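Lay summary

Proteins are chains of building blocks that fold into shapes. Our project writes down both the chain and a compact code for its shape. Here are two examples, one after the other.
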Amino acid sequence: MRVDFHTHIIPEYLPDFTEKHGGQRWPTLEKTCACGATIMVSGKNFRDVTDQVWCPKKRIADMDREGVDIQVLSPIPVTFSYWAPSNQALEMAMIQNNFIAETVAEHPTRFVGLGTVPMQDTDVAIQEMKRCIEELHLHGIEIGTNINGKNLDDPYFVPFFQMAEEWNVPLFIHPWETLGKDRMNHHNFMYTVGMPSETALAGASLIWSGVLEKFPKLKICLAHGGGSLPYILPRLDQGWNVWPHLRLTTYPPSYYAKQLYFDSLNYDSMNISYMINRFGHEKILMGSDYPFLLREIDPGKNIDDTIQLTSDERADLLGKNTLRFLNINLKRSTEYVSSLQSRE
């Protein structure tokens, strides 16, 4: 059973919010051919995409070829639109959440969905999170690493994390609007350096501020293997040790980092081994970043190449950990296997 936790999807026909609401930062999807499009932001090409990013049948064909049983669908972070008025951002979020829920409903054995919420308004975000879970039957929420420059430890977001813990809603934290953007214009460093650094800052903020101490049952998964966070934890601990006047937690950062989950997208089996040793194999979820260029092909390759794993550990990393994280009864995997066998 292979469950790809980290994949992205967008509706094929995304409304033009620039025309509807004004402003230039709304993402639009402009078709270039029957099987391709460009995501445009502020009149510029943000990213070229193929029909893999909106077509469930194309995704399923890729999944069958690459041995993936289930994909977890989440929005593309450029659509978060935290900069917009919350009512407009909510409209953008609802379009995507409804689309993801419909895609899952059409292919319930192949897809699981995560929603998105307008984090610039905590009250609205909480209400949409509730709708995602209770009405749309999505299994978690994807949020960005910062909201309009505010780190996730800002007191404004505490009620959101409180309700996510109370309702047992898993959160997938994905980098966007990365720090140091003005220094990363060349070499696509925004993706290879900026995003890992941005994710480390988000994780460190949640740890150092005491958010994770305050909400010990909060389920959070950091994208891209946690970025650089796993590798700077000893430095964070050293800072905690030598600056007692800055401490906001009972224990050093590495203690709380063990509450976090991480996808496996770090491209190196040595890094997988390091993360297993530091956090435990049960905290690693297989994720590929399908369908983008930086994705891992085939999904789970790093885990396959990690030779010291037992068969049970490998099964957990490739799928069971994700199902547990998303509060999906493992019976679902048995039902899926049975459905495959019935087709044969």
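And here is the second example, written the same way.
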Amino acid sequence: MKLMRNPIRLVPSLFLLAIGIGTLLLSLPVATADGTHAPFLTALFTATSAIAVTGLVTVDTGTYWSSFGQVAILLMFQIGGLGIMTAATLFGIIAGRSFGLHERLATQVERGRLERGDALSVLKLVLGVTLAVEAVTAAVLTIRMAATYDMSLGAAVWNGVFHAVSAFNNAGFSTHSDSVMGYQSDPLILIPIMAAITLGSVGFPVMQDLRDKRFDWRRWSLHSKVTVYGSGALLVLGFFAILAMEWNNDATLGPMGLGGRALNAAFHSVMPRTAGFNSLDVGAFRESTLMVNYLLMFIGGGSAGTAGGIKVTTFVVLFAIVLAEVLGRRDAGLFGRRFGHEVERQALTVTVIAAALVFAATTYIVSITALPLAEVLFECISAFATVGMSTGITADLPPSAQVVIVLLMFIGRVGTITFATALAMGSSPQLYRYPKENLIVG
């Protein structure tokens, strides 16, 4: 009980509990289309992918799972996107429970922002933005699907809601076997999905700045400025890189006109932000395109949102440290502000742990399968960064490799620092410092 009272350790425990409940639900005969029990690993993999808002699947979501199973999956990635502690706190407020410091800290730890601020205001913003974006996106998708794709109104509503919730939560789940490849020439489907994904991936601290300070850029926090600028730069990089590398690929952009190429290149520059949908066959991408996706997926989106990866701010902090060292500056920083040493150490820690986990997982899977290294590495980065895109090898992985992917998705969603802290039995202040001595670096 003492362990569970610590919010830093409580959050991973709640995620595990949610995954356990999701696995049980998907193991029920009513959850599958043919009325049989889903294999335990299939249910566990799908539940973890949904709670971790990843989108990797070993079975087709639209045909393998029944309506009950699909609704359960939707609820899981909605809960995973909001955050287990955020949802629990909101339910507590609705039920009239007191909103104490313990709940505030637990909620903000899950969101990656351990501050004793007014968490209630943040939670209201989270819920308001989530419901508004999902409702608008669902309405647009429903109208378009019903009017253009010969769907009944009921089917259009369900597909519109499912894809809208999946998009905002960066979950990447689709009721279609080919994800959204059937809409690759339809901007009225792809653009709303892109917009919802982008809003979900920038993070709620940025939304809070936008709500409180509007467009007064000078008053925005350093976090918001770094996130917006960094995200914009990565989106532009991804767009031009994918457009150039896949321009003449007959299996992807090659057969399209200029407008189609631009639309789908833009769509796939957004997807590595941990969204997981694909309008093009990722398995047909050239290796150079896969390498660009490695970088974009590993970085991910904004902190304290629905995106995964090491986060844009982490990458920018590391870039600023390198720049400061090259220019001979004492401090690293941006926009007239310097970073604290603890932030620099956290950024380095997150990146090293992430790279080590991906390296270890990739090495293991390559050693037990005959799958190409490029595809296995793509799968592992996609799992850790909770992206959900795949070259098509997920279902072909042996059981032990699928378990590794499950672990990567869980660690990637909970966060490397939160997960490491949850495993630690506690820390004590260091009352001494060793003598300083420098090493030869490089």
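What can we say about the second shape? The longest strand covers residues 333-334.
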